[in-house]
Amino acid sequence: TAFPPMNDSNVCSREVLAEYSGAVRRLARELLRGISEGLGLEPGYINEAMDMDSSLQILTANLYPPCPQPELAMGIPSHSDHGLLTILMQNGIGGLQVRHSGKWVNVDPIPKAFLVNTGDHLEIMTNGKYKSVLHRAVVNNKATRMSIPQSIGPSPDTVVTLVEQLVDGENNRAMYTAMKYKDYLELQQSNPLDGKSCLDRVRI
């Protein structure tokens, strides 16, 4: 669900969202520095390679009202996110599930905390060392759940490919086709959400 049009009664929301989005962007860049270091790279490697000064940041808002028959409905079907990271804020009502060891596992909200999912393009550039998170949203019959995810991706024209330093020859070759971020987005948006089907299409 998109945010309503701004008007005189809620124009301050635009400023709040801009400030919040800026803070999320800074958080994402710090997380990517830590990920770079964890991979044995220079701290700024991912931020520089993915041109994060011009990164594409997408904010969405999801509203899941109570459902009389939650066992017959699905909030959002299983999928993985495009981009490098998704930083999620939610209202404390559970509903997010991740796929782990072949089972769907509830992820209970932690008060005053963000939830961070790794995205397809982190999996692509690390050649699978980091996996994008397969997840879905379920509904309940008691309370309204709200979530505000922000997808943090490279600049649209960045060609996302593996980090060469993470490939060590015949037994560790490239697993994914290099592709511009905007082309991957177009591919994903032109197909229904279905697990990791988009990532599978660029798998070598």
Report on this structure.
The chain is of the alpha+beta class. Helices cover 25% and strands 23% of the residues. The chain is built from five helices and eleven strands, in the order ααβββββββαββββαα. The protein has helices spanning 12-38, 45-49, 120-125, 181-189, 197-201; strands at residues 56-59, 62-64, 76-79, 85-90, 96-100, 103-106, 115-118, 135-137, 145-153, 159-160, 179-180. The strands form three sheets. Strands 1, 2, 4, 7 and 9 form a five-stranded antiparallel beta sheet that branches. A four-stranded antiparallel beta sheet has the order 3-8-5-6, with no helix packed on it. A two-stranded antiparallel sheet has the order 10-11. Strand 5 and strand 6 (103-106) form a beta hairpin. The longest helix has 27 residues, at 12-38. The two termini are 35 Å apart. The model is unreliable at 1-8 (pLDDT under 50).
- The percent range for strand residues is 15-25%
Major sheet, described briefly? 5 strands, antiparallel
Query: What is the average per-residue confidence, as pLDDT, rounded to a whole number?
Result: 91
Number of helices: 5
Poorly predicted ranges: 1-8
What shape does the CA trace take?
globular
Distance between termini?
Answer: 35 Å
Radius of gyration: 18 Å
Structure class:
alpha+beta
How many β-strand stretches?
Answer: 11
> How much helix, percentage-wise, in residues?
25-40%
Secondary-structure element string: HHEEEEEEEHEEEEHH
